[in-house]
Amino acid sequence: MLKKAISYFGVFVLVCFSFFYTDQAVDIIRRNDPIMKKIVENSKSLEINPMNAVIQDDEIITGLNGLKVNIDKSYQNMKKINRYQESMLVFDEVTPEVPIQYDKYVVQGNETKNQVALVFKVEDITNLEMVNSILEEKNSVATFFMDGYFVQNNMDLVSEFARNGYEIENLGYEGVYSSQKLKWTNNMIESLTYRDVKYCYTEYKDSTILDLCSSHKMYTIKPTINTSNYPFLTIKKNLESGSIISFDLSNKVVKELPSIISYILQKGYQPVLLSQLLSEDIANEK
To answer: Is 108 within 8 Å of 219 (Cβ atoms)?
Structure first.
């Protein structure tokens, strides 16, 4: 019985060694494969380091993920055609050490993306359809922070705006966020738009809003540019990549919005949804 056990153990050890040396042999072959060598050789020059978010006291400018070549998956891809082809490289995203944070006022998107976000405050129906028409005509998108009462009374319109590709966010009730109504308004918007509500809005630093929204895993937006009474002039003086540009729905905004969008495009910036501007995802940027 003892001899049998020793014999089985010996076979087991031989099998293990066999697997070990087989794996070692395969690994050596892979490392010496011209395709693998080319992937390893080129990978460093193609990688992009992540960018940390920039924090200044209680304000934050978003960072950006990096990209790293996935050597094994790239190799498996190229072995199918048995030659090196750069377009078949597989990249993994690398998150920055300092990402976007809930407990800071988000004041700007990453400047390397050459994007800006148009943000509209909606408290009533005034000029809303006009703004929609201008955005459609200019083939542009925007994010609308809508008052809770407005959402309650205009559910079909909210749904329509979401279907048109706009982003709907929570403006509170009459500009005030409360713990009692924040979740209720979020649920209302989410049921109408089929997407999560991510942001609160403030033009002035208010720790009550920041703490409340942070506790609900929402980012607090403090716009880079408040257009106020002179939208076009204000933007012309202050526009930069990553700007979060805030508008009300005044007659002045409606009049100047076409020129504003044209100016933004002329300066080489693309208007995008707020969530796209603030995303640290680099997959669509490469």
So the answer is: no
Question: Quick check: 189 and 197 in contact, CB under 8 A?
Answer: yes
Task: Give residue 138's Cα distance to chain centre.
Answer: 23
| Range of weakest confidence among 74-83, 98-107, 190-199, 257-266 | 74-83
Average pLDDT, the chain: 89
Examine the pLDDT at 11 and tell me if it is beyond 90. Answer: no
3-state secondary structure of 271: strand
DSSP annotation of 284 reads T
Cα–Cα–Cα angle for 278, 169, 116, rounded to 5 degrees: 35
Burial class (CB in 10 A: 0-12, 13-18, 19+), 239: middle
Is the separation of the CB atoms in 236 and 263 below 8 Å?
yes
Over 80: is that where the pLDDT of 107 sits? yes
What is the per-residue DSSP string for 22-50?
Answer: HHHHHHHHHHHSHHHHHHHHHHHHH-B--
Res 29: pLDDT: 56
List of residues 6+ apart from 222 with CB closer than 8 A: 59, 105, 106, 107, 202, 203, 204, 205
Give counts: helices (H), strands (E), the chain: 11, 13
**What Å distances lie between residue 202 and 9, 42, 106, 219, CA to CA?**
71, 46, 10, 11
Pairing of strands 219-221, 105-108: parallel
pLDDT at position 236 is 96
pLDDT digit string, tens, across residues 24-62: 544 555 677 888 888 888 888 888 899 999 999 999 999
